Amino acid sequence: EEIRVYEFAEKINKPVSEVIKELFSLGVMFTKNDFLDKDSIEILAETFGINVTTVNDQEAFDYVKAYDDEGEASDQILVERAPVITIMGHVDHGKTSLLDYIRSAKVAAGEAGGITQHVGAYMVEKNGRNITFIDTPGHEAFTEMRSRGAKVTDIVIVVVAADDGVKPQTKEAIEHAKAANVPIIIAVNKMDKEAANPDLVKAQLAELGITPVDWGGEHEFVPVSAKTGMGIEDLLETILLQADLLELKADPSREVKATVIESSLEKGRGPVATVVVEDGTMRVGDIVVAGVAFGKVKALLDDLGRSVKEALPGEPVVVLGLSEVPGAGDTLISVKTDKIAREYAKKKAEYLRQKELSKTTKVSLDDLSAMIAEGALKTLPVIIKADVQGSLEAIKGSLEKIRNSETKVNIVSAGIGGITESDVAIASASSDCIILGFHVRPTGVVKEKAKSAGVEIKTYNIIYDLIDDVTNIVTGLMAPVI
Ligand code: GDP
């Protein structure tokens, strides 16, 4: 995690468009969500005449590394790592059942600790290879982590009940996965049921651009039953095939880098965090930092609660010995000394405090038009919500036509109904995305969420006004509103 352009602008209290303009005049193109490199930060600091002590993750990480890597040869030894899977889908379509079935089917009866523990992630074996499942079904965890920059998931499984078909949260799940650019496998669940109609599921999803392989598309549809266990082995095999295509590699010989999946304060054990190792090997005795937490790893536990000495890339592991409870999505790294660990954690705390203090709108319409005018933004991502299908289609049609030679409108998602928290989550996870409402409004709660996520919501009662605004943004002509 490095510093993004808009975060930098927030910090120095300047409009983001000014920062982008400055960078542009230096001959470098940045959009507000791009990460700044060190040189640019220094040049900007000079231009704006301020003293910047960058305290973001990557900076601190580099700083830590500078100490850490001294005298060490760094020949990379890349080996295959376990794929990390997240299961999403509509409520009651069987996410939990599927996760439970896979876990219990794959754990030999009588193994220590039983299989009742929930630590946020678990690993199973198939054909001598490992697969890690994130054990917190639902979209929130996925988008929350992603909006924090954590990319833990390699493949998303979208569960669709064969007797119920595509539902609103199915669509959401697909949108989340698409926005994150993560491959999707469809598990057509509840195949044991009389009313199961997998062809209807296929047809409905094909309409959303998720076309089955056997219909000439690119997506694997695996019929399963979380009740009888039918198709589960096929599903695991499909995951491995997809993982092969992704060529997931990591270097177990280096220091650990992991992502916190879940954390809690437990009586008698203190702060406990479940992490998934991204790179390197995690070992007992490692000195680590994770967000504002640091410490020497006292013990590592696997997903069955058994004590282990180490965890390899792609593997989930429970970490004991941290000073505090880190946040989900925090990066954990190992460092050489306790001093460095403390320093890092302190910097992170300082960074978070600053960020909290200088929370400003993530994106505003005049920022966007300035960015487009400067050629810094190539597409304008929008989410459209409307009251009726007819209006939605009309708006979609008109927006698709709006483009100038450089810029076009990218419809991230479009749907009927009010503006929801999920829309805000999707918008905040995509760069510079705005939400356009037609005859629909966000509730107070959603407004609050949007505000704190820095997402702009614009609502309209006249289609022409909506089109006009977007056209103005895209042509970069909108007069700045002060
Ligand atoms: P979630 O909300 O997506 O996590 O769904 P659950 O896993 O809680 O499942 C919802 C309901 O569907 C529960 O009553 C499950 O027992 C049932 N269910 C889940 N999978 C299957 C299946 O493959 N076949 C049948 N018959 N029922 C299932």
TrEMBL record:
Protein name in the entry: Translation initiation factor IF-2
Cellular component annotations (GO), alphabetically ordered: cytosol
Domain Tr-type G residue range list: 80-249
Residues of the full protein shown: 305 to 786 of 885
Residue ranges of the region described as G-domain: 83-231
Keyword match Transmembrane helix: no
Keywords recorded for this protein, A-Z: Cytoplasm, GTP-binding, Initiation factor, Nucleotide-binding, Protein biosynthesis
Subcellular location: Cytoplasm
Organism: Sulfurospirillum halorespirans DSM 13726
Summary of the function given for this chain in its UniProt record: One of the essential components for the initiation of protein synthesis. Protects formylmethionyl-tRNA from spontaneous hydrolysis and promotes its binding to the 30S ribosomal subunits. Also involved in the hydrolysis of GTP during the formation of the 70S ribosomal complex.
